[in-house]
Amino acid sequence: MPLDGLHQAVFPRAGQLNQRLSKSPTTQLPATVLQLTTEAPAGVCRGLLPPALHPVNPGVLVITAYEVAAADGRASFRTVEVGIQCRAGARARRYVLGAAVDDPRIAADMEDRWGYVSSPASIRLDRRYERIELTVAAEHTVLRASLLGPQPVTPAAVLYVAGLRPTVYQGQPWIAQFERAFEISRADRGRPQVSELDSAWWTGGETTALAATQPISGSFTRADVTLNPTRFLIAPGQSRSAGTRRVADVIG
Amino acid sequence: MKFGLFLELSVSRPATREAEARVFRHSVEDAVLADKLGFDHVWVVEHHFLAEYSHSGAPEVLLGALASATERIRLGHGVVVCVPEINHPVRVAERIAVLDILSSGRVDFGTGRSSTWTELGGFFGDPDLTKQSWSEYVETIPRMWASPLFAYEGVTFSVPERQILPRPVQQPHPPMWVAVSSPGTEIDAAERGLGWLGVNFSGYDALAVRIGRYRDIMAGLELGPARHKNNTVYTVNFLYCHEDADYAAERGGKLATEFQYLADQNLHTREVVVTPSYPTLGGIPTVSQRDAESGKKKGVPEGACVGTPDQIVEIIERWQSIGVDGINFIINSAEVLDSDEVRRSMHLFTEKVMPRLKSGAVTMAGA
Question: N or C: less crowded end of chain A, CB within 10 Å?
Fold first, then answer.
């Protein structure tokens, strides 16, 4: 597969990989998960992807919000990711451009054990009869989006694809793959609506042009989520087949 | 055994207007050659917005040209997207009929519902309804041709009482097919008496089970007088035939790799839409280019018609042994192979392979 994405630089908010990367899964976090997909400008998406990754046709914006319930002495927390759908080789992936977490301890743990960088923000996930509403605010509102008209659907209809994040190890940029497993006990679907999206905030100042255009689909699930250890890294300037390494081979 | 071409009209980047025109010109030339060499079918796909993978947005126009440029080969409209936002069913009935008239009854009518969000979303089609609209199309279009007056009140479309004109030459109608990729579609096909038009690549064993299921249902099926049964299974395959096995593998591998690369760029409905209507990716899933035993990458997918004439005969006989009646070949992809070598491959196939498989061939019921 030829190189495709046009983004040559490492994102300013790339996570630092270290020897403390998680080697065992964090299992069965009880969560509700809101995922909204809309179309997005194709040229903007291509411009945000490193050469190793391929855009999809049309460009697709993916917003994923998790509300994890309190358990084992840990308080509940919320996290939101904004990314774009892409291909790593033939595989469907979601390239996360920016993330927000409302608990600084969780944010620090995610960065230390997964190289996963996020920004602090207040996050609200409000359930109403006719909609599920997501609001993310830092110094101002950076995301306001909803799932309209939620209706029950078979959990098998919901698909979550593995995510990718820009990271750095000893000065070298890597795209890290993070894999999560979902045991879905209940699922609703509906129509996505994105009323506010601060493109510059979510892309670390890379672009102001990332936008939600035609709505595609959305889901709201109750699931036990397992965070699996990072297994693969991709060199951003090489093809996926040539540039994929096992974490153990790079970091040890 | 029957053989056809499957024209995808792929154009790699940068898809200049000259490159697009060249691909169309070469496709017409390939179809004319196939007609002369004794191939049975040429199928032209319908796709919209699928950059590089397929620039075949108006297959009915290309098929009209092929009706004029060829003499005996059957013309497969494969497949018409049976979604009202993309093709109104009355317009489909009219187009198929005109093509059948102009080709003196050489049309095969393929049906499907599209597997990509790129296409459905582009026309604001509802993925939840495509299975239903497809079912309504295959039920009603033969009736449009059979009745002097047609009226229909359905879920995905309705038509007030009208004469649907013209009507096809073939009686009661051209052979009908459905694109089969996801497991279970063969049941939908058999329950409606439709031919199985395979559009993906699968292993021998998995396909044998599905063909058995299809034949069983077909055997017990009775259709009304306006319909005939098309109890036929076609698969899709790559073709590269050369006297040198290593060279054939290298060129055939290149063809398969290019095709797979282009197919991988499509955005399947299942990937982005939460709907029970698309339980699998459908369309063209990943072609396995790994050796079944060692798992090592080998370039040429298992069962691909790539190799020397003897090797290809052996492969086709294996497909035939599990109940396949015909194979449609992808002979090039985005001009990754030179046109001359594609045609040498077609010539060699028809001289050294086709005669050994045509005798005692399986007959197409209803065709």
Answer: C
